[in-house]
Amino acid sequence: MTPESGAAPPRRGRSFAPRYPGWLALPVLVYDAIFFLAPLAILVVFSLANTVGFGQVSYALSAVNFRELWDPLYLDIFKTTLTMAALGTVLTLLVGYPMAYWMARCLSGGKSLALILVIIPFLTSFLIRTYAWFIILDPQGFLVSFVHDLGFGGWRPLYTTQAIGIGLVYNYMPLLILPVYASLERMDWSLVDAALDLGSSPFRAFRQVTLPLTLPGLVTGVLLVFIPMTGEYVIPSLLGGGKREFVGNAVGDQFLVAQNWPFGAAMAIALLLVLSLFLIVYLAFATKEQQFGA
């Protein structure tokens, strides 16, 4: 192509994306292989084995343990676990999102103090925090006595579904507040002000502007809350008194009491597969959102 033709010469594209050597990922890969893949492989091996006598394991490739999971007793345990985890996540969302919104939108000063107050419960043991609610909800405790004085004499929350719900919401609240607060803190609030100036109601501005912009943090917080709730062991045992058994409690009973390690491993693998379905759905929606945003 001659200069007289007026066509610009082709330009060579340059990529400014940083390039890192692959060996930098080696420590993470080794860590995952030792502390995640290896234990998961051992769990799979046990789930395909058979129980011989009491506490004896015969290694094989058998699916009998997974077939036993279709027993109505164990299906009810999985149903209870997923239902309680879903309800606990919804309650945590209803309490945690307004709190995160208040911290990001309404607090002009003292945000660091508010974050510290949210994180402080994590400085103590999970077991100690749960035992604290065991004392608070005790029938002879101050809270129950105060409620009885108000005329609600039949309220005895300990060893009930209410106590489990309170424990779930309290213990996992920070895991939802922090990612939602991070999304709200990065948001451009002038967009909300512009929507209000154009005639939108506060609720409509929240639904059409704030909620979509904070949806990634909201979904992250929901996953951080829902997934560990499904594997909960301490809260149903202490606050529920064993009346509402989660899959974690059933797995613990199979390993520690019944000495049926293959069946306990099969229950753990089944729960892992169920949670993997939720993650696959989340990743599918996240990928579509990124493609739409691009």
Structure description:
With 294 residues, this protein is an all-alpha fold. The protein has one domain: MetI-like fold. Helix content is 68%, strand content 2%. A two-stranded antiparallel sheet has the order 1-2. The protein is globular, with a radius of gyration of 26 Å. The two termini are 35 Å apart.
The percent range for helix content is 55-70%
The overall pLDDT average reads: 86
**What is the strand arrangement across the widest sheet?**
1-2
Going by CATH, the homologous superfamily would be MetI-like
Task: Kindly estimate the percentage of residues that lie in beta strands according to DSSP.
Answer: under 5%
Largest sheet: 2 strands, antiparallel
Tell me, what's the shape?
globular
Assign the structural class, choosing from mainly alpha, mainly beta, alpha/beta, alpha+beta, or little secondary structure. Answer: mainly alpha
For the record, the count of structural domains works out to 1
- CATH class value: Mainly Alpha
Order of helices and strands: HEEHHHHHHHHHHHH
CATH topology: MetI-like fold
Number of strands: 2
Number of helices: 13
Unreliable spans: none
CATH architecture verdict: Orthogonal Bundle
